[in-house]
Amino acid sequence: MNAPERFSLAVVSAGTSDPSSTRMLADRTAERAAALAARDGHVVTVSVIELREISADTSAALVSGLITPKLQQAITALGEADGIIAAAPVYKAGPSGLFTSFFGVLDNDLLIAKPVVLAATAGTARHALVADDAMRPMFAYLRTMTAPTSLFAAPEDWSDPALNTRIDRAALELVLLMEGGFARRIKDESWSSYQHEYGSAGGTETSIDLGTDLMRLATGGTAG
């Protein structure tokens, strides 16, 4: 068994109602992950980011680039998280605009290698592939380590034992990824090998060599 550790788990919910089936699915997954980690002697601290509470802040960031204190608090929680559960309701055959807008304003370097469980809810089972078809590519672009098992719940799924089985499987995958320390090792051992934008990673990525011919040309100078 691995030595006991403390893990931070961030739940991102784009549900708009209260209570929300999207939040319920995310919470059940987080609770199961915490229980599985506790079995190995670990402690999981869960923080919740309700996107409906920062919808105006997200819109302002999209339009002006302004990051409000409330939005920055959510971004910091994600940056410090060892694992993430990202849950969205499905509207018009895709994750809600609130969900995609939030992840669209994040720094491209913020979530590199972080373990993520993807979850979606909808009013019909016809949208069961949204997590894999629409959400997974976005998180691949953000270079996260998405768990193999994604979650989906339509109204009829809540009484189906198969949903609990999928939640257990996704939660275990998330815990194993956190225990493995993959994201931490990438940060420590391989961070410089990733393509970064200047000033990314919350303004800390400044290791780009500005003295190359290409960078001198890009900044209005001359080569050589």
Overall description:
This protein has 224 residues and is α/β, with parallel strands linked by helices. Helix content is 44%, strand content 17%. The protein has 9 helices and 7 strands. Strands 1, 2, 3, 4, 5, 6 and 7 form a 7-stranded mixed β-sheet that branches. A hairpin with a 2-residue loop joins β3 (83-91) and β4. α2 (55-64) packs across α4 (97-104). It is globular and about 45 Å long. The chain starts with 5 loop residues before the first strand and ends in a 6-residue tail after the last helix. The mean pLDDT is 89.
Order of helices and strands: EHEHHEEHEHEEHHHH
Mean pLDDT: 89
Structural class: alpha/beta
Strand segment count: 7
Largest sheet: 7 strands, mixed
Relative strand content: 15-25%
Low-confidence stretches: none
Shape estimate? globular
- Which range best describes the helical content: under 10%, 10-25%, 25-40%, 40-55%, 55-70% or over 70%? 40-55%
The rounded Rg comes to 19 Å
Q: How many helices?
A: 9
Termini separation (Å)?
56 Å
Task: Set out the fold topology.
Elements: E1 6-13, H1 21-39, E2 43-50, H2 55-64, H3 69-80, E3 83-91, E4 94-95, H4 97-104, E5 115-121, H5 130-141, E6 145-146, E7 151-153, H6 161-180, H7 182-189, H8 200-203, H9 213-218
Parallel strand pairs: 1-2, 1-3, 3-5, 5-6, 5-7
Antiparallel strand pairs: 3-4
Helix pairs in contact: 1-6, 2-4
